[in-house]
Amino acid sequence: MIEPLKGYDLAGRVAVITGAGSGIGKATALTLAAVGVTVIGGDIDQAAVELTKEEIAQSGGQARAVRTDVTSRADVDALVDGAQAEFGRVDIMGNVAGIPHNKMIADTTDDEFERILAINLKSVFYGVQAAFRVMMPQKSGNIINLSSGAIDTPAPTLACYAMTKAAVAMLTKTAAVEGGPHGIRVNGIAPGVIHTNFSRHNFVDEEGSVVPEKVEQYKKRFGAMAPLGRVGEAQDVANAILYLVSDGAGFMTGQILRPNGGVSMP
Ligand SMILES: NC(=O)c1ccc[n+]([C@@H]2O[C@H](COP(=O)([O-])OP(=O)(O)OC[C@H]3O[C@@H](n4cnc5c(N)ncnc54)[C@H](O)[C@@H]3O)[C@@H](O)[C@H]2O)c1
What we know:
Blueprint: E1 14-18, H1 23-34, E2 38-43, H2 46-58, E3 63-67, H3 73-87, E4 92-95, H4 110-138, E5 141-146, H5 159-179, E6 184-189, E7 194-195, H6 212-223, E8 232-233, H7 234-245, E9 256-257
Parallel strand pairs: 1-2, 1-4, 2-3, 4-5, 5-6, 6-9, 7-8
Helix pairs in contact: 1-2, 1-7, 3-4, 4-5
The chain binds nicotinamide-adenine-dinucleotide.
C-alpha cells in the first residue's frame, strides 16, 4: 500500500528561519514547529522573535530566538552555524526577512537603493552561502527564498523592490543547479498580496495604529484583483513552504511557487 503522507513527516528536522518575528516568517516557524521541526528563528526585532519562540514552546515545540540583522554576513553565519553547533545539522533554511519599498525611480535615493539591496537581496545570498556550507557536507537540505509576485507585473514605485525579488528568483534557480548534485533542493516563493505587517502602510493611521475599517478596505481592494477574491494570509504562504521543504516535494527544485490567489499565472 502506498503511504502518500509519509513524505510530509518532518519530525526531528532542524530549520533556520529569518524574519521569524512577524508575518510569513513567523507563520512558517509556527507551522514547521507544529510538525515537529526544531526552529531557530532570526530577526532584527529581538522581542518579536522571542515571542515566536515562546509561542512554539507553549505549544510543546522546540525553538531558539536569535537577534539577527540579515544585512550582516557575520550575523547570518552565526545564526546558521549556531544551529548546527547546537543541533548537529540544518535541514531547512528559510530566507524570509524582507522589507517593502514604494517609490518612483526618479525619487529614489542612493541610500534607499543600497538599503533595499542589502535587506532583500544580499541577505538571501548570505543565507544561501551559509546554508550550502552546512548542507553540502551533510549531502541534504532544503532552502526556501522569499521572492514576490512583484516579479511578474511591473508597477510604478516598485522598481527597487521588484528588482531585488527578481534577482532572488534567479539566485534561487542558480543555487538549485549548484545544490542539486549535493542533495540540496532550492525553491522560491512569490506570494501575492499577503495580510502582514509588510502591508501596514495601507491600513494604519498617522500614529501607526491599525484601523479596522482600513484593513477591510485593503482586503477588499487587493482581494478584488485575485480570481479567488481575497488577499492571502501568512498561513497560506507557510503552507506552501511546508510543502516545498517536505520529502513529498522531493522532485521540486529551482521552482518559484506562487501562492497568490491567481493574480498572475506566468
Ligand atoms: N506581505 C506581502 O504582501 C508579501 C508579498 C510578497 C512577498 N513578501 C515577502 O515576504 C517576506 C516576509 O514578509 P512579511 O509579509 O512576513 O513581512 P513582515 O513585515 O510581517 O515580516 C518581516 C520580518 O522581517 C524582519 N526584518 C526586517 N529587516 C530585517 C533585517 N535587516 N534583519 C532581520 N530581520 C529583518 C522584520 O523585523 C519582520 O519581523 C519578505 O521578504 C517580503 O518581501 C511579502
